[in-house]
Design goal:
The complex is a heterodimer of chains A (358) and B (144).
Chain A lengths: L1 H11 L2 H9 L1 E3 L8 H21 L9 H10 L4 H29 L7 H23 L4 H15 L5 H9 L6 H33 L5 H8 L6 E3 H26 L22 H12 L3 E2 L2 E2 H17 L1 H4 L1 H4 L5 H24 L1
Antiparallel strand pairs in A: 1-2, 3-4
Helix pairs in contact in A: 3-5, 3-11, 4-5, 5-6, 5-11, 6-7, 6-9, 7-8, 12-13, 12-16
Chain B lengths: L1 H33 L11 E6 L7 E7 L2 E7 L5 E5 L10 E3 L4 E4 L4 E3 L5 E3 L8 E7 L2 E5 L2
Antiparallel strand pairs in B: 1-10, 2-3, 3-4, 4-9, 5-6, 6-7, 7-8, 9-10
Classes of the chains: A mainly alpha (358), B alpha+beta (144).
Chain lengths: 358, 144
């Protein structure tokens, strides 16, 4: 092994990597547990890439064959059920992990100067993950997915001014048809992965360049001349990371084996909407809020206002580092903590209410 | 010292075995998944290839024999012959050549006679012959 490394070293000069491996450290403090969330999110994304590539081998993206091909995967192909269930469950865990990562970073105010770009790339990645979830949901072309996509693209259609164009762009026409499936497929396996690859690379690059952020209290202590305890990344920290990934694998395998993802009935554009139609859990809070809005608020259409508000919230989320000036001066910013807590509470409560209501 | 050394080696071995088992546990299902399942479609035994009156002497037509192509030929003498149209060389679909009254594969210029035997070119084996029966005007082709 060392001979191989020497051989490569002689030709490519690995001293930079050696130095990086030897130097990279992870700060030790009371909040260090939150560092694992980014790693496990990345790990689950890798699981998605691998299982997604495997599904591509048998999946057929057309209205007449999509459902049958997924049926073929889960019933005929050996371990096809496992691969599909892993892909579905890992998608859900990935979004859960991404949300947890986002909130932990938010409450620790790790977005503060100089890590604004890391936060922005992370928030954009979360939106991309939601895009993956939304586009992937339609691909089995079953009843539930078909109507959820109708509703979801309909929400995009409610955006003021550009909604109509967006709806037609997303659906590939006026209705959800095979053309929509082709678009969502292209989005899911080519466009979103390309964008994600670039953003993940940037996100990781930023983290590596700046090192791990430490909580404000810790930072103040360090500035006052305190000593930062560190753990080497290789191998101490990476082994702990791997341990967390093992837990994720165990959870995934158990969920995939004991709670298989149902395929349901094939989509029929001329069938009535089945009762209990609802989107994936991470869209439930938004879905339920829009359901509760009155049809008109102050003379405006309720749904349009709702969609506009969600768009505004997403935009604010991206620019949080520039709004929270106190945090950038390493001062506590209780207002932002309060707003974050309210958002988290709203999200959890409405997801549960939405779940129970449908 | 030696006991610490042994304990370290023991732990390394356990850890290594754990990693290898994980890789095996992932690689095995993936490997099995990559092998396409055997098609459930039973091998076709018999089909109606054409109407006899449509096939003129010294002509041939390719028909669907299950999932594979078949070749029905009416010889210049008026006799009907049928073959599995898959060339024995590299799986191209063969055709009837009226000017030489031979079966010809366009991919690598292999030729067969009207019994399916190789005349020239790279094909290693004769074409598989199928049985032709006439039922009224229908030409029924079946596997022997």
């Amino acid at each position: 092994m060392s001979q191989i490394i020497d051989w490569v070293d002689e030709r490519l000069d690995l001293s930079g990597i050696r130095h990086f491996i030897a130097e990279k450290g992870v700060p030790i403090h009371t909040q260090k547990i939150w560092y694992y969330l980014g790693g496990v999110t990345l790990f689950l994304f890798m699981v998605q890439v691998a299982s997604g590539i495997l599904l591509l081998l048998y999946y057929r993206p057309s209205a007449s064959e999509a459902y049958e091909s997924v049926q073929f995967i889960v019933t005929q192909v050996e371990f096809g059920w496992l691969i599909r269930n892993i892909h579905s469950w890992s998608a859900n865990l990935l979004i859960l992990a991404a949300f947890a990562h986002l909130f932990s970073v938010f409450f620790l105010k790790s977005y503060r100067q100089p890590r604004e770009l890391t936060w922005i790339s992370g928030a954009l990645l979360l939106f991309l993950m939601l895009g993956f979830g939304f586009s992937g949901y339609l691909l089995p072309w079953n009843e539930l997915a078909f109507f959820a996509t109708k509703v979801g693209t309909g929400i995009a259609g409610a955006v003021p001014f550009v909604g109509r164009g967006m709806l037609r762009f997303l659906r590939g026409g006026d209705d959800v048809t095979g053309a929509t499936l082709s678009r969502f497929y292209a989005l899911h396996v080519a466009i979103l992965p390309a964008m994600t690859t670039v953003l993940v690379a940037l996100h990781l690059l930023f983290v590596q360049r700046q090192g791990m952020s430490v909580p404000m209290k810790e930072a103040r202590r360090l500035r006052a001349g305190g000593f930062q305890k560190q753990m080497p990344f290789f191998p101490d920290y990476i082994l702990r990371d791997v341990l967390v990934w093992y837990v994720a694998i165990a959870l995934l395998a158990a969920l995939a084996a004991f709670y298989p993802w149902e395929l349901g009935r094939k989509a029929d554009p001329f069938a009535a909407v089945p009762a209990g139609i609802r989107p994936e859990w991470y869209f439930l809070a938004m879905f339920h809020t829009l359901k509760l809005l009155p049809s008109h608020i102050l003379g405006f259409e309720g749904e349009r206002l709702g969609v506009l508000a969600f768009g505004l919230a997403a935009a604010l989320l991206v620019v949080v580092p520039f709004l929270d000036r106190r945090a950038s001066r390493e001062e506590s910013s209780p207002w932002f903590t309060t707003v974050g807590l309210a958002a988290l509470l709203y999200f959890v409560a409405f997801t549960i209410i939405g779940y129970l209501a449908s | 010292m030696s006991s610490a050394f042994n304990r370290r080696r023991f732990l390394d071995a356990i850890l290594g075995a754990g990693f290898i088992s994980t890789i095996a546990a992932v690689a095995y299902p993936v490997w099995r998944y990559l092998i396409p399942p055997v098609s459930g479609e039973p091998a076709t035994q018999s089909v109606v290839a054409a109407q006899a009156s449509q096939v003129k002497p010294n002509s041939g037509l390719v028909f669907k024999f299950g999932s594979k192509p078949g070749l029905l030929v009416r010889t210049p003498d008026g006799e009907l012959q049928a073959f599995n149209a898959v060339c024995t060389h590299l799986d191209c679909t063969v055709q009837y050549k009226p000017d030489t009254s031979q079966i010809w594969c366009a991919c690598h210029n292999g030729t067969y006679d009207l019994q399916g035997n190789v005349v020239s070119g790279p094909p290693p084996r004769p074409l598989e012959r199928l049985v032709v029966n006439q039922r009224g005007d229908e030409v029924v082709v079946s596997r022997t």
